[in-house]
């Protein structure tokens, strides 16, 4: 691993960390605010997903540290880097939440596949493993969420 490659992987991992943190807060926000006939199922599903995201976030941060660079860790930094939008302030319907999170998880999966390819080329094995796990998580999360569509 040369320094340039290492930095490129660390930058991509930092971006991933920021995106996952914004998505975690959004998922937790929807866990709190969801209502209607799908309340119980979505409340539970969102809880299990933000908890799983927290584990991946911690793993991501720790892989970043193996490159000897600082891990970002403030909402100010996360907002600057992340492409995922924060939850809107308005009260949303369960169906709006479903569409938003389905789109976010699919977008994450697409972006992570690009990062995975780069990490494979750089032979950054820890990052490769992490991206593979994250892609599986996001694909599954999107499926579970959109299965609640009417
Ligand atoms: Fe809760």
Q: Tags for this entry?
A:
elongated, 150 residues, binds fe (ii) ion, Ferritin, mainly alpha
Structural class computed from helices and strand pairing: mainly alpha
Can you tell me the CATH architecture?
A: Up-down Bundle
Distance from first to last alpha carbon: 49 Å
Q: Identify the CATH class.
A: Mainly Alpha
Shape: elongated
Order of helices and strands: HHHHH
Query: Could you name the CATH topology?
Result: Ferritin
Identify low-pLDDT runs. Answer: none
- What gyration radius follows from the Cα positions, in whole Å? 16 Å
Helix % is over 70%
Bound molecules: fe (ii) ion
Average pLDDT:
95
Count of helix runs: 5
Count of β-strands: 0
Number of domains: 1
- Strand proportion, as a percent range, falls in under 5%
Largest sheet: none
What features would you describe in this structure?
The chain is mostly helical. The protein has one domain (3-146): Ferritin. It is 77% helix and 0% strand. The chain has helices at 3-33, 39-65, 75-81, 94-121, 125-146. Helix 1 packs across helix 3, helix 2 (39-65) packs antiparallel against helix 5 (125-146) and helix 4 (94-121) packs antiparallel against helix 5 (125-146). The termini are far apart. The mean pLDDT is 95. It binds fe (ii) ion. Residues 31, 47 line the site of fe (ii) ion.
Layout: helices, strands, pairs:
Elements: H1 3-33, H2 39-65, H3 75-81, H4 94-121, H5 125-146
Helix pairs in contact: 1-2, 1-3, 1-4, 2-5, 4-5
The structure holds fe (ii) ion.
């Amino acid at each position: 691993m040369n320094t340039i490659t290492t930095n490129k992987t660390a930058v991509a991992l930092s971006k991933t960390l920021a995106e996952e943190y914004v998505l975690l807060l959004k998922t937790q926000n929807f866990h709190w605010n969801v209502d209607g006939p799908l309340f119980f199922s979505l409340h539970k599903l969102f809880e299990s997903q933000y908890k799983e995201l927290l584990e991946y976030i911690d793993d991501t941060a720790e892989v970043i540290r193996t490159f000897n660079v600082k891990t970002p860790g403030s909402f100010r930094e996360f907002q600057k880097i992340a492409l995922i939008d924060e939850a809107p302030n308005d009260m949303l319907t369960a169906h709006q939440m479903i569409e938003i999170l389905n789109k976010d998880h699919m977008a994450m999966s697409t972006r992570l596949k690009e990062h995975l390819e780069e990490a494979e080329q750089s032979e950054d094995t820890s990052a490769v493993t992490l991206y593979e796990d994250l892609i599986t998580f996001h694909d599954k999360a999107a499926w579970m969420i959109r299965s609640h569509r009417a």
